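Please review the protein record below. Tell me whether the encoded fold seems credible here:
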Amino acid sequence: MKNDKIDSTVNQLFNTACTRRDSLRLLGSTAALAGITSLGFPSSLLAGKGRKKPNIVFILTDDHRWDCLGVMGHPFLQTPNMDRLANEGMLFENAFVTTSLCSPSRASFLTGQYASVHGVKNNFSRWDENKNKTFMEHLKNGGYDTGFVGKWHMPGGSLPNLPGVDLFVSFTKKDGQGDYFNCPIYVNHELTPNRKPYITEELTDYAIDFVKQERENPFCLYLSHKAVHHDWKPPEHLKGIYKNADLSHLAPESDKYNTWTNLNWLEGTMGNMHNVYRRYCECLTSVDEQVGRLIDTLEQKGILDDTIIVYAGDNGYIWGEHRLYAKHHPYEESIRIPYIVRPPKGYMTDTGRRADQMILNIDLAPTLLNMAGIPIPGAMQGESFLPILNSANASGRKSWVYELFRDFPFGGRVPPHKALRTNRYKYIDWELCNTPEVYDLQEDPRELNNLFGTERGTKLAKGLLAELEEMKVKYNLVNT
């Protein structure tokens, strides 16, 4: 096909598609004819176009906020293996979850959908096995061997029958939160004796066993850790490694909403926040050690460069900022996550890049299917971020919607709300009690100065609210 005909086809598709997301999917359907992909780079980079399907490893941690990485300049936290992934791949510095809560976020990673759509709206919502379809099921149908290892937590206390998953390793203890030590493990729904006392290591052992299997098919491994959720118990060899660390970088006293003091006790019985934060970092270093073991296994097997590795957190965590702790709230400390992607060899020429484009948890599923050469289902609301891997100049989304629902009793102190996050501004629309909030994130990155009620804030709020309402309709988030 000649270039002018290709251009005509592309232009026609973009002009008739109603959204950028729809345009990408429509282009994907004609990529074979045009000799290009819907992502703007050669189709030879995708599986099924003379390229081997990549293995997939997705590592998900709990409550890991975006700036708690060595590669992000953390003053003392040691994460050399996560740093390696970032240096050999790409670190997204503006990555977010659409709901900052364990179960909804995990369902969004798996389905590529907002919580309003997949229906897991809080930690007690039931996963609908008849409606929801995970990216692992699509991969299985596309020829992959699949393994799910770790925390499920939708809803707590029971485990699903997941179509398309060959190995399912999980736990139900503490309503699905699990224990750091001696946590009962179910392997394909059969209670199985513990092999290791510490859960982060035990889950990694199951993941390594899965990777080591001899197989003809590519594989997808979903490794979902209990760490670094409370009650923050590190393994014995890491206890106290940060006991003398300086914590002044967190919620400095210059912030008028700082509640970071030695006298502030977390959740009544967890200890003062200084000591708890140190334990949190010790647990993170333990996760990093286990990430290193998994990387070493891939390398020893000779398949590291045939594998895409994605590391992410299910939500952030507030450590005293805004006079708050934990999550739920729509502030940056809560909704931003680490998101590291180390693609197979040949997908990036500028490894170690930091990307400032905004991406979301719902973008994982379409991206993995895209890399595997599997069509992206229309039900997925996320966008593939492969264009950003391919080019630093690729455009990212300009705005997106954050949503939180009632989560009694744990989130009962936080009213339900929706928020619009753009590249520069944030508008928070509370359902109950609170007045709206407007922040200029360029001038006020710690969100200390609510502009709502000022002349400038009133003007900004009008436009941001209108955009929020439009996006609620676009993504079917109305009246949810």
